[in-house]
TrEMBL record:
One of its GO terms (biological process) is mitochondrial transmembrane transport. Keywords: 2Fe-2S, Heme biosynthesis, Iron, Iron-sulfur, Membrane, Metal-binding, Mitochondrion, Mitochondrion inner membrane, Repeat, Transmembrane, Transmembrane helix, Transport. It holds the Pfam family Mito_carr. GO terms for cellular component: mitochondrial inner membrane. Belongs to the mitochondrial carrier (TC 2.A.29) family. InterPro entries: MCP, MCP_dom_sf, MCP_transmembrane, Mtm1-like. It is a multi-pass membrane protein. GO terms for molecular function: 2 iron, 2 sulfur cluster binding; metal ion binding. It is found in: Mitochondrion inner membrane. This is Mitochondrial glutathione transporter SLC25A40. Solcar repeats lie at residues 9-128, 136-220, 230-324. It catalyses: glutathione(in) = glutathione(out).
Amino acid sequence: MAEKAPGGISPLQQMVASGTGGLVTSIFMTPLDVVKVRLQSQRPSPTSGKCMIYCNGILEPLYLCQNGSRCAVWYQQPTYFTGTMDAFVKITRHEGARTLWSGLPATLVMTVPATAIYFTTYDQLKAFLCSRAVTSDLCAPMVAGAMARLGTVTVISPLELVRTKLQAQHLSYRELGACVRAAVSQGGWRSLWLGWSATALRDVPFSALYWFNYELVKTWLCKMAAKDRTSVSISFVAGAFSGTVAAVLTLPFDVVKTQRQMELGSVGALRVTSPRSPSTWLLLRRIQAESGARGLFAGFLPRIIKAAPSCAIMISTYEFSKNFFQRLNLENCPRGP
């Protein structure tokens, strides 16, 4: 482990600081993430008079008719959400408020270590790039953010898939296990990384844009406030702004990622060999053809509402924790005679 300079913090302290931020952010922001996933994963309402194949992701598909005389009288058309507030109201009314925190254990298991690895790797990479003059100080945050996120996405992708299934279909953990086992038996272990490319296309540019804008805005705000050290309020504002910009520009890839990961349940239910998934660009074109440009920005409001406060809470908690450890290290630093 690299030694820390007086007033600096060690990589272990960086991991503790970022893990704490991830824990706090996950608890507060999970309901918005649940609504976003439910909006993105729902299908358009079936046209009256047409038939469809209904599959809940676990059971065998059933042939149902939407012409008034249904093939299965017990079938109830899944709740369709018209918007963010409609989703909040219907989920709370029909499924209970606890559903808004569905997948929270998987989120915590994924988010805390992923955030710790991601932020620590970013800080270490940025320091390395700046000290070795590999890139300019302006581009160092962008390069370090992209590289750190790419590694984190690869490690965390299977847990992200599990969380998406829990939130979108409200499966029990036993049903989820059966769904994952069925998919692995048909598509192999690679099926657990279903949607990796779309996730990387969303998260890597998001990370590069976020850190580039964050460092710029933070530096500008510090100069405006005539402060040498980043305060919690400055990091909060800079994080909210940077997260919003990055979220808007990468939203279509977030929709593709959700659609790709939802294919896991369909493959497991049909018990057939997993077909070759279309490329990300083909899937983008298909979503646009089926739902228009609006489909590419499904879940826009909850993602934006989530991005600003979650990025703000995360980075401000991280900066606060780093400042705490810096003060602690200075106090414990042996003083000369």
